[in-house]
Automatic annotation (TrEMBL):
It comes from the Bacteria. This is Bifunctional protein FolD. Homodimer. PROSITE patterns: THF_DHG_CYH_2.
């Protein structure tokens, strides 16, 4: 069984991003800039945002974090998003989720200019993905595809993929990306009947449900590739995935750990999207 190491793979990809950023700067161009908007003081969100700041630093990109009080209004938040849209120095805009309860998330995300939407959550980018056209891809699904590629799974013709979870952030876009690579995709979720039986047909099993250790060995076909997107914080403070790693690891041919699996890839793909948006803005390299 192979453990797909997201820390190692993301470090490798970050190295190529770093080189490209360096070349951009050596040519006298401005740096790519990621602007992160954080509303309120959710400790997990604060830590993820710090992770994004450090990631930008590590590849030589500029970073701006806009910290806003939890009590600002929806209209004030939208005003901040619009300012970032209009700022020609900003290539990527990201609103850290979840927003505090009194906000409506979708109307805020709708305000992000699609060409700066490095989370790939704007309906324009979601629509481009659905249509199989070029746009900014959501980071976690894109990171999962990079992990599959890293173990030689690029063309997925003839393979059954089962995605458990149907969120806009992960399950829905990932199903489309897998299908684009010719996998036969089943989208399963919490209301699916005979879930274990359906999962046990998967050559590639993706767990993105948010239920700790739900996927046990009975869900897994011998030799399957198991990708764990879950990040669940346990009472003891430790992280655990949606997959029962110990129970599944000897049955799978490859498996991602939590932590150190999909999580680091998400941040890496964010850098990749910011670089992509930058190139579009600057028409750099054309
Ligand atoms: N606007 C967004 N909000 C959120 C996203 C997102 O992609 N865009 N995803 C998650 C949180 N998230 C990034 O924002 C994120 C979560 C976890 C990790 C990560 O690397 N986790 C590590 C463990 C870190 C730890 O110990 O806490 C790992 O899995 O190894 C990266 C990004 C929700 N919000
Ligand atoms: Mg569900």
């Amino acid at each position: 069984m192979k453990i797909i190491d997201g820390k190692e793979l993301s470090a490798k990809i970050r190295q190529t991003i770093k080189q490209e950023v360096q070349e951009i700067k050596e040519h006298g161009n401005r740096s790519p800039l990621l602007s992160v908007i954080l509303v309120g003081d959710n400790p997990a969100s604060q830590s993820y945002v710090r992770g994004k700041e450090n990631a930008c630093l590590s590849v030589g990109m500029e970073n701006r974090t806009i910290r806003l009080d939890a009590n600002i209004s929806q209209a004030e938040l939208i005003q901040v998003v619009r300012q970032q849209n209009e700022d020609p120095d900003v290539d990527g805009i990201l609103v850290q989720l979840p927003l505090p309860d009194h906000f409506e998330t979708n109307p805020v995300l709708d305000q992000i200019s699609p060409d700066k939407d490095v989370d790939g959550l704007h309906p324009v980018n979601a629509g481009l993905l659905l249509a199989g056209r070029d746009g900014l891809l959501p980071c976690t699904p894109n990171g999962v595809m990079e992990m599959l590629k890293s173990i030689g799974l690029e063309d997925l013709s003839g393979l059954n993929a089962v995605v458990v979870g149907r969120s806009n952030l992960v399950g829905k876009p990932l199903s489309l990306l897998l299908q684009q690579k010719n996998a036969t995709v089943t989208m399963a979720h919490s209301r699916t009947k005979d879930l274990a039986q359906i999962c046990s047909k998967a050559d590639i099993l993706i767990a993105a449900v948010g239920r700790p250790k739900m996927i046990t060995s009975e869900y897994v076909k011998a030799g399957a590739v198991v990708i764990d997107v879950g990040i669940n914080r346990m009472e003891n403070g430790k992280l655990c995935g949606d997959v029962d790693f110990e129970d599944v690891k000897d049955k799978a041919s490859a498996i991602t750990p939590v932590p150190g699996g999909v999580g680091p890839m998400t941040v890496c793909m964010l850098l990749m999207n910011t670089l992509k948006a930058y190139k579009e803005h600057e028409s750099y390299g054309r």
